[in-house]
Amino acid sequence: EKDGYEYFMLKEIAEQPRAIADTLRGRFDTSGGIILDEVRMSDQDFRDVDKVFIVACGSSYHAGMVAKYAIEHWVRLPCEVELASEFRYRDPVLDRSTLVIVISQSGETMDTLMALRHARNQKARVLAISNTVGATIPRESDAVLYTRAGIEVAVASTKAFLTQLAACYLVGLHLAAVRGIKYADEVAAVVAELAGTPEKISQVLEAMEPVRELARRMGTADRALFIGRHVGFPVAMEGALKLKELAYMHAEGFAAGELKHGPISLIEAGTPVVVVVPSPRGRSLLHDKVVSNIQEVKARGAAVIAIAEEGDDVVAPHVDHVVFTPRVPTLLAPLLTAVPLQVFACELAAAKGLDIDQPRNLAKSVTVE
Ligand code: F6R
């Protein structure tokens, strides 16, 4: 039940620290690999992989987009991410040494299931990340890693999405471990940092009142743009999807670098632009680029809301509102930066009096193609 929360979605947002902690718990073996829940393939099969495809729909696809950055960086394997509804129809090049990772909360999404069957027909190995034990997708896969979000009642994915991110990181680390790690020190540090993320998500959740306040004031806006670079790009896509599905607002997420190639013409005085800002530490080039994107939209009158890392004192003077999230390695940042965007969409929809848990026209599990 709702445990005193007004909506299941609020309850599920609040459960995220627990959901991530559960998903990470007891997963590491002594050699640094992770313990998968079902494995019908050998370590040798994992070592033979020469290409990774990640296939999913909706929010699960956004989790896959984040995974691509992590897997390519940690494992140095080429990795493509594709929408399940497109994957099968473009005749992807697959063989025994291809690993296809399918991500599905419900484990029953028909587009994803069809992509999985197509991949297996082409002899590719399939690893499923799912939240539903015994669902069709995990049953038909060669290996399974279950997220432990618990049942998600609200139609819009929140805790399931966050645990998919955690599971993707685990798979990336597993591949790095079984294949011989290139950046061993970095991977060990990431494992430790991952373990600390539930606490940091709690800190984000405790600081959400200004975000709610902002959302309530924005109830009259008719559209919003979300931009980011690197792993901030999929987070921007996810933030926009949440706003569309919950608040029935036209929202678009895209790579900040694309602004000048078209979307910047959408900016008018007062257009809300949400910017997912990368950490200024480490990848400062990326940070500089995002700051100049902020200046570009500000110059055209946008109302800019930035999600930035604690201690980032460069961004604040350039934007209308800034929400800070704790420090974390760049690749893990989506576990924190996605949270204010969930809260924002939920509160904005609530301010409009909409049905948060059951948005119109949507179903929790999409079992038709
Ligand atoms: C968005 C949302 C959907 C699902 C998508 C895939 O909030 O919930 O976009 O992420 O329908 O569903 P699963 O993960 O069950 O395959």
Mean pLDDT: 94
Distance between the termini: 31 Å
Oligomer: single chain
For the sheet with most strands, the description reads:
6 strands, mixed
| Beta-strand residue fraction | 15-25%
EC number: 2.6.1.16
Enzyme class: transferase
Keywords: Aminotransferase, Cytoplasm, Glutamine amidotransferase, Repeat, Transferase
GO biological process, one term: UDP-N-acetylglucosamine metabolic process
Fold topology:
Layout: H1 8-14, H2 16-24, E1 38-39, H3 43-48, E2 51-56, H4 58-75, E3 79-83, H5 84-87, E4 98-104, H6 110-121, E5 125-130, H7 136-140, E6 143-146, H8 159-179, H9 184-195, H10 197-206, H11 209-217, E7 223-228, H12 232-247, E8 250-255, E9 272-276, H13 284-299, E10 303-309, E11 321-325, H14 334-351
Parallel strand pairs: 2-3, 2-4, 4-5, 5-6, 7-8, 7-9, 9-10, 10-11
Antiparallel strand pairs: 1-6
Helix pairs in contact: 2-8, 2-10, 4-8, 4-12, 10-14, 11-14, 12-14
Bound molecules: fructose -6-phosphate.
Fructose -6-phosphate binds at residues 57-60, 104-106, 109, 112, 156-157, 241, 245, 365-366.
